[in-house]
Design a protein that fits this description.
The complex is a heterodimer of chains A (32) and B (131). By secondary structure, chain A is an alpha+beta fold. Chain A has one helix and one strand. The chains are: A alpha+beta (32), B alpha+beta (131).
C-alpha cells in the first residue's frame, strides 16, 4: 500500500489533533 | 499520519524539530509532543519495528498501561530478530508492573533475558530485577 505523504507539518498536526492520531515525520536529504 | 520534510524544501522544519542528521523519523502524539526519535538509516524490518516501538511509547507516556504492554509485546513477537525486540520486552514488563504494581512482572523480564538477548543493553538494565 502506497503511503500518502503530507508536506505540511502544521496541517498534519491539526489533523492529528482533530482525529486523535499520532504523527510520523520523516526528515530526508535524499536526492529526489 | 505521515509527513515528509526534505531539507531543501522545508529547512525550517529541521530547525523547528532540532533535526541535525538524516534520515530522522519522529513520532509525535496527537498533541504534537515528540515521543520517539530514530536517527540514521535502518533496514526495512528494523525501521518498522522502531515505528511500532514509537506507537507503544505513546501509549506508555499516556499511562495507558495495558495498551502499552500489548503493543510492546506485539513488537517482541513480530520482530524477534531486530534490536527492537529486547527493548520491547523490557518496556512490556515495565508496563505490566505499572498496571499491576506487581514486582514479579519485573523479575519475569529479567528471567526472559537469561534465555535470549543476553548481550543487549536491555538485559543489563533488567539485571537488577534478577533473583
Amino acid at each position: 500500500m502506497a503511503v500518502k505523504w503530507n508536506k505540511d507539518v502544521d496541517a498534519a498536526l491539526a489533523e492529528a489533533k482533530a482525529r486523535n492520531k499520532p504523527l510520523l515525520i520523516d526528515f530526508s536529504a535524499a536526492p529526489a | 499520519m505521515p509527513v515528509q520534510a526534505h531539507i531543501k524544501e522545508h529547512p525550517v522544519y529541521f530547525h523547528r524539530f532540532d533535526v541535525l542528521w538524516t534520515p530522522t523519523a519522529l513520532i509525535l502524539d496527537s498533541s504534537g509532543i515528540e515521543r520517539y526519535r530514530s536517527e540514521g538509516y535502518l533496514p526495512n524490518l528494523e525501521f518498522r519495528a522502531q515505528l511500532e516501538i514509537g506507537l507503544a511509547r505513546i501509549a506508555f507516556m499516556h499511562k495507558q498501561w495495558p495498551e502499552a504492554e500489548r503493543r510492546y509485546t506485539a513488537v517482541a513477537e513480530k520482530y524477534p530478530n531486530t534490536s527492537a525486540a529486547p527493548e520491547a520486552i523490557y518496556w512490556s514488563g515495565v508496563s505490566r508492573y505499572k498496571a499491576t504494581n506487581d514486582h514479579t512482572a519485573l523479575g519475569a523480564v529479567a528471567d526472559k533475558f537469561k534465555e535470549r538477548y543476553q548481550s543487549s543493553v536491555w538485559a543489563l538494565k533488567a539485571s537488577i530485577w534478577s533473583h
